[in-house]
Amino acid sequence: MSSYKLKKGYDLRIKGDAEATLETLPRPTQVALDGREFHGLRPKMMVKAGDKVKAGSPLFLQKGTENFYFTSPVSGTVKDVKRGERRVLQEVIVDADETDEFEEFQAISAGDLLNTSREVILEQILKSGLFGQVLARPFAVLADPAVEPRDIFVSAYLTGPLAPEINLILEGNEAAFQAGINALSKLTTGSVNLGIEGGRSDLSEALKNPANAKVHHFNGPHPAGNVGIQIHHIAPINKDEVVWTLTAQAVISIGNLFIQGKVVSEKVIALTGESIDKRKHVKVITGASVADVTKGRVKSDENLRYISGDVLSGRTITGGFIGSSTSQLTVIPEINKMEFMGWVLPGNEKESFSRTFFSFLSPNKKYSHNTGYHGGERAFVQTGAYESVVPMDLYPVHLIKCIMAGDLEAMEGLGILEVAPEDLALCDFVCVSKIEVQDTLRKGLDFFRKEGC
């Protein structure tokens, strides 16, 4: 066990956190698998509109890899396969049956998993569709099952704005979590590393001392809970190395796959954001429609933005379905016009990282946030703000400028292989130049992956 106390970072003081209560929502009438959330996806369709599917039936697969399926969360009928520009897969929509019929998989107990071969475990995860929740570093893209990872990392320390309560995610899933850890331990010759919040006495027992995993205690402001930050401090990625990362919910899903012999698509998400009434943690089916999840909870008199994830690194939901890898739905007001003369006002009701407004005199106060940028892009200057919110041995301003210049050698030297967009999400918030840092970093990672390797 190791402990890390990080000082750099910032906890966004935003209103709209979810109550620490858990509610089970009614079964959705429609679900969807969104191809846009899987970075690095090259899909080959296996169904068409009108086809009947079971829970766990393949909808499409990753080209160039055997049995790497993406499966239906429910049984029902495929309603539509939506594509965008250049035939990019957007959504596969399924009308859900009243009850599920499941594809059958081999049931293996948590103990027996330790005596099961890597090949058997990996093949079952691939066929179940759950391997789509495994990301590879560097690049933060879908993992290649043919490449064995040096280590596997799981973060159960959730520090993002309005983050869900990890104990509610683990509640009733302790055995499945341990089974998932056991399965993952067979997929690497290295270690399964679990990051948790240090010093928290009420943390779920499933996280404190799991078998077949190394536990690391982290404390500090966001992004201390990001898996990329934890990798940097535990065992940084060297050139030509690959590690895999998963969320705690993905580990639970893998555990349930082996314990129950079927794909269990139920998950816990937090309904957050000031524009949602009755904010709670809810049990939903993966891919459920936002309309079903937020029915009777949204303030209908506002122009709203729905975000799969948190306000810093989440993805705007354009199709209206919950992402398969998210544990949070955030709804905030959508602002389409500038605030007149906003920069000259005292700003008592506006959060300010740089002490621009008098709100810095109230360090414990929470504030309303919206989608406003408070200005347009301007000269990219170095202020030291980026460095103060990135707890890594990194020069983020120099890295972003090298990405803009397309300098592959400089990108590598400045550590592009160690970061993912979410690790620099706070740079977007504190940037006085209004640079789209995460978007720039993602383009740089894709460019390096294509040209530099």
TrEMBL record:
Q: Which GO terms describe its molecular function?
A: oxidoreductase activity, acting on NAD(P)H, quinone or similar compound as acceptor
Q: What is its EC number?
A: 7.2.1.1
Reaction catalysed by this enzyme: a ubiquinone + n Na(+)(in) + NADH + H(+) = a ubiquinol + n Na(+)(out) + NAD(+)
Q: Does the keyword Plastid apply?
A: no
InterPro entries noted in UniProt:
NqrA (IPR008703), NQRA_2nd (IPR056148), NqrA_C_domain (IPR022615), NQRA_N (IPR056147)
Domain NqrA N-terminal barrel-sandwich hybrid span(s) in chain numbering: 5-97
Could you provide one GO biological process annotation from this protein's UniProt record? sodium ion transport
What is this enzyme's class at the first EC digit? translocase
Domain NqrA second alpha/beta, first and last residues per copy? 117-263
Location of the Na(+)-translocating NADH-quinone reductase subunit A C-terminal domain: 268-318
The answer, when asked if Translocase is one of the entry's keywords, is yes
Keywords, alphabetical: Ion transport, NAD, Sodium, Sodium transport, Translocase, Transport, Ubiquinone
**What is the role of this chain?**
NQR complex catalyzes the reduction of ubiquinone-1 to ubiquinol by two successive reactions, coupled with the transport of Na(+) ions from the cytoplasm to the periplasm. NqrA to NqrE are probably involved in the second step, the conversion of ubisemiquinone to ubiquinol.
Stored HAMAP family: NqrA (MF_00425)
Record PANTHER family: NA(+)-TRANSLOCATING NADH-QUINONE REDUCTASE SUBUNIT A
Q: Which family does it belong to?
A: Belongs to the NqrA family.
Q: How does it assemble?
A: Composed of six subunits; NqrA, NqrB, NqrC, NqrD, NqrE and NqrF.
Q: What is this protein called?
A: Na(+)-translocating NADH-quinone reductase subunit A
What is the originating organism of this protein?
A: Lentisphaera araneosa HTCC2155
User: What is the primary gene name for this protein?
Assistant: nqrA
